[in-house]
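Review form for a predicted model. The reviewer records the input and the model, then writes brief findings.
Reviewer: anonymous (R2)
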Amino acid sequence: MGTFRRVILPVAWLLVFAIIAVALVKIAFVDGLESAGAEPAPLAQVDIPVVPATRTTVTNTVQIKGTVQSDAAEPVRSTSAGKVIKIFVDQGATVAKGDALFQVKAERPITSTATSKDGTPTAPKPVYDYFDVLAPSAGTVQSLSTLIDQQVTVGESVGKIDPGTYTVAGPVTAAQQYRLLGKPGPAEIALVGGPAPFQCAEVTLKNNASDDGGGASGGLAATGGGAGMGVGAAIPGPGSGGSQPEEGGTPTGTLSCAIPAGPEVFAGLGATMTVSAGVAPDVVTVPLTSVKGSVKDGIVWIAGPGGTGAAPEQRTVQLGLNDGSVVEVTSGLAEGEQVLEFVPGAPAAPNPMMGPGQVAYAPAG
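Model under review:
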């Protein structure tokens, strides 16, 4: 019994522990390595989204945020040189175009000499001409600086006529200018807190590059009718890479419209101008994000046969109107053809499953 307890039992326990250790080593190292080696490595797979070319009606309507501005006062310049002898109107008076504002007396130059009865030369009597200086436009006399007996010269600025008219003007981005390449149609004006929307026919589109005042004021010129050319949703312009349309953009021009008589407005009112620049019914279209370029010439990527695994085919297409979301394809693409939803390498639409500031990117082709 003593021998069993001192020798046999400890040896048995050692054998049990040794078997357990060997089993653990096999499970941890041998079986684990075999399992890992037998399983295939996971492969990353990216599905490239494609969309079909579809038929729809494209309505090119551009909305521009603007402000009502008072038209600039018309300067009054003297059309004759001489002495002011009469002033017909006071500051604040209402005048029509061509009304007399003041009168100037000018001495007529005389070249001949007169003689007395005995033949002695005498100084001729002066001869005077009288000229009325007229209002250059209708409106209210904002200022008139002439005084009786004041000497004025031709072209001298002596006052201003306030026309009492208004213009609504707002800045446009380059993308909006591309959408308005044709002559803009009439605009519907909706004033913030003002009367019901009304039509405005005299729409002017002008580039800030040709208007120093417009460039310094962010696209709004000081006068309405002379406002620079200057769209709600910015659209990718040529060479933009087909990025997702975004609100905003740097103003490159100003759109303005002279407010017709009738609606009661005042300077500083906010306004929305809705301008129609064409309708293309039942035409082949693709999303703007599918096209590199948005005016005249563009490039799309045709999905390869057999799914997205094949290399896409680059194709040049001709473009027509766009509405900020889709663009008309006038030639180069047939209805039903599958194109990549996003230009290769361009930012794709934001993924709602991602956090703020995170953007999914279309894989490069």
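Findings: The radius of gyration is 41 Å.
Further findings: Helices lie at 2-38, 174-179, 212-216.
Recommendation: see findings above.
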